[in-house]
Design brief:
By secondary structure, this protein is α/β, with parallel strands linked by helices. The protein is built from 25 helices and 18 strands. The chain folds into three domains: about 220 residues, L-fuculose-1-phosphate Aldolase; about 170 residues, Class II aldolase/adducin N-terminal domain (L-fuculose-1-phosphate Aldolase, 3-Layer(aba) Sandwich); about 200 residues, Rossmann fold (3-Layer(aba) Sandwich). The protein is elongated, with a radius of gyration of 30 Å.
């Protein structure tokens, strides 16, 4: 565990709260200490209230903030005296605790204080740090965890048996420390949960945390509790259609589309291929906090021998069905009759021969589960080498999963974006209509794979929710690889915007260059057919799958000199009509957009626009609005229509052609 404290950096912060931010971020930089919002920190300080009177406050990390990126606004200021009095109450449910903490805040716009605020308040030191350090929790998650912790730290730490976070934990520590000399302690070890350290300076508290965790890391190494170097074979070929099957089944049981993050790293495969993985992986999570992201146990797909084309889907469905039944039984064993059951679908899967799969309604959520899994499988193997991996009893995990504070959130969930959890692929995505489609789909919650021949596509969009990939759509193997990459990246495919195209120079039929003709057919027609062939196997496993073809006004109203373009686009439209006929039985919708005069694209430079406007005796402004409604059609307008076609408004429509042209006399 690296000590990242820097005296020069620390000296730049001239008050308690800024120094608290600095050291909190140091902790947040260490994923072995905290993951995705885990852990919390605080500082006690005195401020003058509106009456000019000194008032003792606890600035404690607010709910929803991450230590790695926390700012001053992420700390909730709470009256210290009130928090210290709350712990003296004989009992207090956590919902009321949250309300009382909120009432005691001095800044109404601040986030809710951490549920550990009372515990921070009763620790008699200025700075307090709390992490879920992997090494420490790994040692505690063994059959002789408490004995080992005492062997490791002696009397330098207070050891607290596992209890629920919040008021119960604060009350437990309060009662255990009534006759303890705090100056003799360097920290508190919460069995199966984490570590608290404290000090009169931010540096002292931080360095105590680093030291205690480092000692645990050394202990694991000295005891031979190390994960062997990965030696797993590569993942099985052809696992992408299997992944799409799995993602489809999970999405169906969840009742909404899901992202599936497939981890085929050597580390993941090594764990997934352990002979005893079904037992190890289902003993429980690394810490109770993780259950809110991962559920108590993963899905384990053990029927490797059944993974043949004919019965693969049945194998997956059976495994998921059994998991759901087991979860429902788990809920029935522990509910008090007043709890609202959570969705019983798994949050991650252990798949021998394939790796680990993490599920989430967003790419971010799936990646968080994946990160937690990385730490969990390492801890499992270390603890197993230390005498046996042993998580908390099932009832303790259930109580955390169904904590009253979590149950309250079920009734305040916001409406998700239209395409949340959906996976889209857009061709010709580096500019114009394609780029606008990527941006519109992403804005509405989709994970998007953006394909283009231009190298800029790899850096044009911000990952991880948009994956840009260079692809020449006229190269069949590149296209197949790109579609497979899309599935590998997010788990499946739901939406295809087939947009890639080229506008050849104006040539009469008599003058048409054979290269012009062949190039137009290759890009504007044949590449779309290849794309459909590549995508259809995955779209059959999509959630409300939809294909949107970007056609052209030239289909219903061609003009002279553009035969290469018009014929290709007419063929593309006919291809879309046949696709609508063939794919309807699989629930795949195919619709066409015919744009006209979309000038905010790469081919329409100011010089080209000026030349075309002059040719027709118009100003550029008149030329751009040369339609019945006298409006300009933009790439964004086309993208908006494409999203509507791919969404619920067109859920019962297929095979249609819709013009977006402001009204064209020749078309009408």
């Amino acid at each position: 565990m690296q000590n990242r404290w820097n005296e020069f950096d620390a000296s730049q912060f001239d008050n308690d709260l800024l120094l608290r931010v600095y050291s909190s971020r140091l902790l947040g930089q260490e994923p072995d200490l905290v993951l995705h919002g885990g852990g919390n920190t605080s500082v006690k300080t005195t401020v003058l209230n509106i009456f000019g009177e000194p008032e003792e406050l606890l600035y404690v990390k607010g709910s929803g903030w991450d230590l790695a990126t926390i700012e001053t606004g992420g700390f909730a200021p709470v009256k210290l005296g009130i928090l210290q009095r709350l712990v003296t109450l004989p009992q207090l449910n956590d919902s009321e605790m949250v309300r009382q903490q909120r009432i005691a805040m001095t800044q109404p716009s601040a986030p809710n204080p951490s549920v550990e605020a009372i515990l921070h308040a009763i620790i008699p030191f200025k700075y307090v740090d709390h992490t879920h350090a992997d090494a420490v929790v790994t040692v505690t998650n063994t059959q002789t965890g408490e004995t080992r912790i005492r062997e490791l730290y002696g009397q330098r730490v207070l050891i607290v048996p596992y209890v629920m976070p919040g008021f119960i934990l604060a009350k437990t520590v309060y009662e255990m420390t009534q006759s303890i000399d705090w100056s003799q302690l360097e920290g508190i070890i919460l069995l199966n949960h984490g570590v608290f350290t404290f000090g009169e300076t931010a540096k002292n508290s931080y360095e105590r945390m680093i030291q205690l965790v480092t000692e645990a890391e050394h202990y694991l190494f000295q005891q031979g509790a190390v994960v062997p170097l990965p030696s797993a074979p590569p993942p099985r070929p052809g696992n992408l259609i299997a992944l799409a099957h799995l993602r489809h089944t999970i999405s169906q049981t969840q009742g909404l589309p899901m992202i599936a993050n497939l981890d085929t790293s050597a580390t993941a495969l090594q764990f997934a291929n352990l002979p005893c993985v079904a037992d190890l992986a289902t003993r429980g999570p690394l810490t109770p906090d993780h259950v809110l992201r991962t559920k108590r146990v993963p899905l384990v797909i053990t029927a490797v021998e059944g993974e043949r084309e004919g019965n693969l889907e049945e194998v997956i469905k059976t495994a998921v069905h059994q998991y759901i039944q087991t979860y429902c039984n788990y809920f029935a064993r522990h509910t008090d009759g007043h709890l609202t059951p959570l969705n019983p679908s798994p949050c991650w899967a252990v798949w021998p021969g394939h790796g680990l799969v993490s599920f989430g309604t967003t790419v971010k959520d799936a990646n968080i589960v994946s990160d937690i899994n990385d730490h969990t499988i390492r801890a499992i193997q270390q603890a197993e080498a230390l005498g046996g991996w042993q998580a908390l009893p099932e009832k303790d995990i259930f109580d955390m999963e169904y904590w009253e504070l979590e149950q309250a959130k079920l009734h305040t969930s916001p409406t998700p974006p239209t395409f949340q959890g959906k996976i889209a692929l857009v061709t010709g995505a580096a500019s114009g209509i394609g780029r606008a489609c990527v941006e519109a789909l992403h804005k509405q919650g989709a994970a998007v794979v953006a394909l283009d021949i231009h190298p800029s596509i790899t850096t044009l969009f911000k990952p991880p929710t948009v994956f840009g990939q260079v692809c020449d759509v006229t190269h069949r193997q590149q296209l197949l690889h790109a579609v497979d990459s899309a599935v590998r990246q997010f788990g499946g495919l739901d939406i295809v915007i087939s947009n890639a195209g080229t506008f050849p120079p104006s040539e009469t039929i008599a003058e048409t260059n054979p290269t012009t003709w062949e190039t137009s057919l290759a890009v504007n027609l044949s590449s779309h057919q290849s794309l459909l062939q590549s995508c259809i196997p995955y779209l059959k496993l999509g959630m409300d799958p939809a294909i949107v073809i970007i056609g052209s006004k030239n289909v219903p109203a061609p003009g002279p000199g553009v035969s290469a373009y018009s014929v290709a686009k007419a063929g593309l439209t006919q291809l879309a009509r046949v696709a609508a006929l063939e794919l309807a039985k699989f629930g795949i919708r195919v619709n066409v957009i015919h744009p006209n005069a979309v000038f905010d694209t790469a081919i329409w430079t100011p010089e080209v626009l000026e030349k075309r406007a002059t040719h027709y005796g118009m100003t550029v402004a008149d030329y751009k609005t040369n339609n019945l409604l006298k409006v300009e059609i933009t790439s964004k307008d086309v993208a908006t229509l494409a999203c509507v076609m791919a969404g619920p408004v067109f859920a019962k429509t297929t095979g249609v052609q819709v013009a977006i042209d402001g009204g064209n006399e020749r078309v009408i």
